[in-house]
TrEMBL record:
Residues 67-274 form the ALG11 mannosyltransferase N-terminal domain. GO terms for cellular component: endoplasmic reticulum membrane. InterPro entries: ALG11 (IPR038013), ALG11_N (IPR031814), Glyco_trans_1 (IPR001296). Residues 300-440 form the Glycosyl transferase family domain. Pfam families: ALG11_N, Glycos_transf_1. GO terms for molecular function: GDP-Man:Man(3)GlcNAc(2)-PP-Dol alpha-1,2-mannosyltransferase activity. It is found in: Endoplasmic reticulum membrane. Pathway: Protein modification; protein glycosylation. This is GDP-Man:Man(3)GlcNAc(2)-PP-Dol alpha-1,2-mannosyltransferase. The gene is Contig8998.g9620. Its main location: endoplasmic reticulum. It is a single-pass membrane protein.
């Protein structure tokens, strides 16, 4: 046995620890490479936009005039937002500075341009020139529908808006991007990757501090279910969710070049969120009341109550039918209720069917008439014979229908909030209509207006 000593050699690796400085360097390097990748992508997008824009200029023969794009996928909707859209386009087409500019509508409609413009003329009496106007069809526009997202609706719609705006600008970039739909969360991406001037015409803020207050006060309404309102934990989570959305909405506001709002109420909320008074102004929706104001108030009218609003959940048409059912017992036997509105798709059709079922259940189906997607002359004919009009949406941003009801000499009742309160009925020193806060208020005012129309019709006529 050898006496040599045998040594066992074990490799010892030094323990490697990340110190604070190393972590910072890793973060900085990662951030640098990430910024380079984003920068390359942005530069590539801008360059592609430049090439495509030059191609469009040649195609449209608009070398010295800006190409103006209106983002309004629901351009065939037939409601107040669409009326504003086409009135704006008409104004551009007759303006000396912009009349030779090419106008594009980023559209999600399945109808042809000719069908859309024919409906615009029929419903709004707005005639649009076909020359210098093109429709850019968006394949992804259905992703913007709120019904796709039963939970976290605003968040998923925001993400969808970014995707759809990317599609729009990739297909047909523009010099001036005018959003009339409310896709504020997409503004930073549109500006950074494609670089147009951005004009936001805001009908209704996507998120507002009122929404936080609604959740905080445990109020049940169409966007705050009873399950959430009755749970402190769920309400706290939803408040945090809304707060994050408001912060992101604030950031989006920095990328807008010009902001227009449609009412005092909307303007106050947008100033609160975006805080940009120098580039924010109110542009009230266009309301041509000449067709209504010439109606003869001395003509004997029928015992008709009327409402006019697109069939959407927030318009609260179900409340109108309950009001009618409760008011009917003290109205003349021949009284009728005409519900005028537009239907865009199967979701709207489903609302109408639910309303018909409600009328049946309340026993008023014979006195409630649904007037769907009617042309302008039919609406005027109904207004000419009506005595009372109701508008039940809470926080209606402006209220074009309210103005038109009043212009027709109809005793008009609207909710005591937002546009009807601040800009229309409540903005006048003399009484020109009624503002209601509860179902009982509406019932009382409907009965008063219907039974005393001859006196009140002359007194309330404003426009």
């Amino acid at each position: 046995m050898s006496g040599d000593n045998h040594h066992l050699h074990v490799a010892v690796h030094p323990k490697y620890e990340l110190d604070f400085g190393t972590i910072i360097r890793i973060i900085l390097v990662t951030g640098f490479f990430f910024s380079v990748v984003i920068g390359i992508f942005m530069g590539s997008s801008r360059f592609k936009k430049y090439l495509l824009l030059e191609k469009l200029r040649q195609q449209f023969k608009s070398q010295w005039n800006p190409i103006i794009g209106f983002f309004h996928p629901q351009c065939d909707g037939g409601a107040g937002g669409e009326k504003v859209l086409y009135q704006a386009i008409q104004a551009i087409q007759i303006d000396n500075k912009f009349k030779n500019s090419q106008v594009m509508i980023y559209s999600g409609s399945q109808l042809s341009p000719e069908q859309i413009l024919a409906a615009v003329e029929s419903r709004f009496s707005i005639k649009i020139k076909r020359e210098n106007l093109s429709f850019v069809n968006l394949r992804l526009s259905n992703k913007l529908k709120p019904d796709n997202y039963p939970r976290f609706t605003i968040l998923f719609q925001a993400l969808a808006s970014i995707q759809v705006c990317f599609e729009a600008m990739s297909l047909a970039p523009c010099d001036i991007f005018i959003d009339t739909m409310g896709v504020g969360y997409a503004y930073p991406f549109v500006k950074l990757f494609f670089g147009p001037k951005i004009i936001s015409y805001t009908h209704y803020p996507i998120v507002s501090y009122d929404m936080l207050n609604t959740v905080g006060s445990n109020t049940v309404q169409y966007n705050n279910s009873q399950a959430i309102a009755q749970s402190k934990i769920k309400s706290s989570i939803k408040k945090a969710y809304y707060y994050i959305l408001i912060v992101l909405y604030k950031v989006a506001g920095y990328f807008i070049d010009q902001i227009a709002t449609n009412s005092s109420w909307t303007n106050n909320h947008i100033l609160h969120v975006w805080n940009a008074p120098k580039k924010t102004q109110i542009i009230y929706p266009p309301i041509d009341t000449r067709e209504f104001s010439v109606l003869d108030l001395n003509k004997r009218r029928k015992n008709i109550m009327v409402s006019m609003a697109q069939f959407r959940p927030e318009k609260e048409h179900d409340l109108q039918i309950r009001i009618w059912a409760n008011a009917l017992e003290q109205l003349p036997q021949d009284s009728k209720f005409y519900m005028i509105g537009t239907v865009r798709d199967k979701d709207d059709e489903r609302i109408v069917e639910q309303l018909k079922d409600l009328a049946q259940n309340l026993g008023v189906q014979d006195s409630v008439k649904f007037e769907i997607n009617q042309p302008r002359n039919t609406v005027i004919s109904i207004f000419e014979n009506a005595k009372v009009g109701v508008h039940t949406m809470k926080y209606e941003h402006f209220g074009i229908a309210v103005c038109e009801l009043m212009a027709a000499g109809i005793v008009t009742i609207a909710h005591n909030s937002a546009g009807p309160k601040e800009d229309i009925i409540g903005a006048n020193e003399s009484q020109v209509g009624y503002l209601a806060e509860s179902e009982d208020d509406y019932v009382k005012f409907v009965q008063l207006g219907m039974n005393n129309f001859e006196k009140l019709g002359q007194q309330f006529k404003l426009y």
